[in-house]
Design goal:
Radius of gyration: 17 Å
Helix content: 55-70%
Largest sheet: none
CATH class: Mainly Alpha
CATH topology: Four Helix Bundle (Hemerythrin (Met), subunit A)
Oligomer: single chain
Length: 224
């Protein structure tokens, strides 16, 4: 997938990378899911929860913390799907997998550009809430398409026995992509991953991310 077409230095950003108190454990924890659909749906529910937490927060600091959590989760979720799920569409869904993957990559490009705009905003900006709602509306359209059409088609193909696909194995690989984002809030923390900012992660060519991810130990778990 191409890099962001309009990626520029964000005019403003929080001076420190603040997260909700229980967020670092979430960022650093891996889990076992019976299917890749379960792993992806879990991310979807988390995104919906973070979105609601931003809107319901009653002070600026809390809004910023949930904004940061939402931005990181959506960025790493998008990259995880592009690394693991869309290639699986192309490999196991015959015919139609390539067109499905192309459609979803195009949707992700739109989401990532909207996300880049949102991550540079402050809760006190007049269009903060409107930008978030517009972004989430696009995300929800993508979620519905994936959960009602794309993922059921993939699971059906994997269960059919005509391929050597393993949904649980795909789920484990998808969860491992969480190692691509920081597990600590400070950029100088040890054991940091290849990208320390959302902008850096989103702008990186997907081929470069794939090459680095391929050299991660298969059973490694990020430190809390």
């Amino acid at each position: 997938m191409q890099a962001l077409r309009t990626l520029r230095a964000a005019p403003r950003a929080p001076l420190t990378y603040r997260l909700p108190r229980n967020a670092l454990r979430s960022l650093a924890t891996t889990a076992d899911y019976p299917t890749v659909s379960d792993a992806i749906k879990n991310d979807h529910r988390e995104l919906e929860s973070y979105y609601n937490n931003i809107l319901s927060a009653t002070d600026v600091d809390t809004k910023i913390r949930w904004q940061n959590q939402y931005v990181w989760e959506l960025a790493r979720h998008s990259i995880g799907e592009e690394l693991i799920v869309y290639p699986a569409f192309e490999q196991y869904l015959k015919p139609g997998g390539e067109s499905m993957a192309a459609k979803d990559r195009a949707a992700h490009q739109d989401i990532k550009e909207r996300l880049y705009e949102f991550q540079s905003m402050y809760p006190t900006d007049t269009n903060f809430e409107g930008t978030l709602k517009s972004l989430m509306a696009t995300v929800k359209e993508h979620i519905i398409e994936e959960e009602e059409h794309d993922l059921p088609a993939l699971e059906k193909a994997l269960k059919a026995g005509a391929t050597d696909g393993d949904s649980a194995g795909l789920a484990k690989s998808f969860v491992r992509t969480k190692m691509l984002v920081p597990t600590r809030s400070h950029p100088s923390a040890p054991d940091r991953p290849p990208w320390e900012t959302v902008a850096g992660l989103m702008a990186a060519p997907i081929d470069k991310i794939r090459d680095i991810f391929a050299r991660f130990p298969k059973e490694a778990t990020p430190k809390a």
